[in-house]
Amino acid sequence: MARQAVPLAQAYRLLNHGPTVLVGAAAGDRHNVMAAAWCMPLDFDPPKILVVLDKATYTRELIEQSGEFAISVPPRALLSATVAVGNRSGRDGDKFGPLGLHHFAGDQVAAPLIEDCLAWLECRVVPEPHNQSRYDLFIGEVVAASADDRVFSGGRWHFRPEDEALRTLHHVAGGAFFVTGESVDGN
Amino acid sequence: MARQAVPLAQAYRLLNHGPTVLVGAAAGDRHNVMAAAWCMPLDFDPPKILVVLDKATYTRELIEQSGEFAISVPPRALLSATVAVGNRSGRDGDKFGPLGLHHFAGDQVAAPLIEDCLAWLECRVVPEPHNQSRYDLFIGEVVAASADDRVFSGGRWHFRPEDEALRTLHHVAGGAFFVTGESVDGN
């Protein structure tokens, strides 16, 4: 695989089909990652996204301090880690090592991007204190985007038969997911 | 099929996996329907959802007048109609008849629910003028929810082999979609 930059005007396409994501954040020497099913595009260009972050999460605390976060889109191969990341709190200890997750530095933000994911959106918080406090709702402007060119290129996701383990995930509830399925054209 | 009520505390599960939806609205004797890929849960109980509605849309005009809307989750069988609904404006004429779409009355709101869809969420707008004007972002409180019991029951989506035409849809861009795929358990 090669991580390739995605033009910012196409960044919404990384989330448009509604995959469950991992949210990474860092502040000072602390960093963490959580899972989020409630994340979607808000605008095309400049691209903005929405993500719901419960007040109890350590990731939110780091985001509120740093004003930055990174979305990573996990593949089916990271299904168990995605569930585990969502069930543990970073306040109880580092999640990365015990879950076998590795991270790397983004191009524009200090928040951790998760290795072996398929797409990454680096975001700066657009401050909206009312939304954040009342609805746990955060707006991020996407300042860099990239994707694994095995499954996303030319502005499109494409999963070949040999890419079954690289399909994205859609959470229903309680650790039950659907894998992204067959491609269909409505035109 | 039988349309069965879904408990409000489980309503988020109708949207949690990120399907593309149809948004119906009515005001006075006018009604319309549009497609939206940017719709997701915001809260569990009482359930709230988010939907992004462009200022140019007729549906938004009706929602701003009535304070209500209805989300319908279309199946693969309605793929062409879903694309067509998104490409036409209700200002240019009624969409329902020409596209072969039928609608029925909800239990709590006057907005049209679309026949042959799989799930329905009847919503009242939670007024947030700043979000609406700046981000085209609307919050709805779900006041009634229901689903086709062939594919949603016991709080879960379940697509049997004979339900291929009833799988939900996930928009990527430009009329290209993924169908909801295989079920996997991350526990």
TrEMBL record, chains A, B:
UniProt xrefs under InterPro entries: Flavin_Rdtase-like_dom, Flavoredoxin, Split_barrel_FMN-bd
One Pfam family linked to the record: Flavin_Reduct
A GO term, aspect molecular function: oxidoreductase activity, acting on the CH-NH group of donors, NAD or NADP as acceptor
Domain of life: Bacteria
SUPFAM superfamilies with a match to the protein in the record: FMN-binding split barrel (SSF50475)
Presence of keyword Flavoprotein: yes
Co-factor(s): FMN
Domain Flavin reductase like per the UniProt entry, residue ranges: 13-159
Keyword field: Flavoprotein
Family: Belongs to the flavoredoxin family.
Protein's name in the database: Flavin reductase like domain-containing protein
